[in-house]
Amino acid sequence: MDDQMNGTSGRRSTNSRRTVLKLGGLSLASAVGAATVGTVTAQSDEKPDVDFDPDRREEVAEFILALGELESENQQRRYTAQLTDEQMQAMEDLYGEVDWEIRSYRQNATQPSDNWVTTTEVTEAKGSVPIIGTVYVHKQILTWDYNGSDYRNVSQELDYELPGPAAAYKGTTTDDIDRNATSFTAELSAEYAFDPPGGERRKEATIITKGDNNGNHEVLSKSAPASTE
Q1: Quick one: which of 176, 142, 178 has its CA closest to 158?
Q2: Is residue 177 very low, low, confident or very high in pLDDT (cuts 50, 70, 90)?
């Protein structure tokens, strides 16, 4: 088997998106859960209400959304510095209730030679919290060659977006690949967080997938992520 698994990596970034490319460890990441429970929209001219009731979820969500409308971290810090411990805890608890919804699809398939086919499978997970909606989007992009009896050139790309207020990517925690003669099983975990000034709540997304020499792709693990606290 000619499986090119050399350890190289690259990174590109934007304000709301990060990508990690690895050519030496295969995996598909994310986790699955339920859909969101509705959405609250903060107006651009609405200032965060530091007197919100920490026992009322909608008020907590409204504060988080209004906080996300502020232009700088210094502005956010001025408001979060006025909060009680109970209010900060309520925000972290709301963001801690992440549900993951997953979908997997084939992006393309080409035949570079008579015997080998190259395919790309994308697995995308959306992490949502109650009331606010989607806060993390986690994609795993997997590419490999196969010919029905062998596979080679396995590579994987982790792509993510952070649409949620104060959402943050905290890094890959597991990136493993287990190969045998005709298939491979991949596992990848990454941490995401609600990360406003003065507080943090992390969650870990994990998924295990399988690819083989016939080009088949299967998501093996669909359990919701556990808190990393």
Answers
A1: 142
A2: confident
The C-alpha angle with vertex 20 and arms to 14 and 22, in degrees rounded to 5, equals 155
Q: Are 128 and 98 in contact (CB under 8 A)?
A: yes
Contact 95, 135 (CB under 8 A): yes
- Report how far residue 83's alpha carbon sits from residue 88's, in angstroms, rounded to the nearest whole number: 6
Start-to-end C-alpha separation, the chain: 42
Q: What is the pTM of this model?
A: 0.73
Side-chain-side CA neighbours of residue 129 (13 Å): 30
Q: Of all helices (H) and strands (E), which one includes residue 36?
A: none
Treating both helix axes as pointing N-terminal to C-terminal, what angle do 57-68 and 73-80 enclose, rounded to 10 degrees? 150
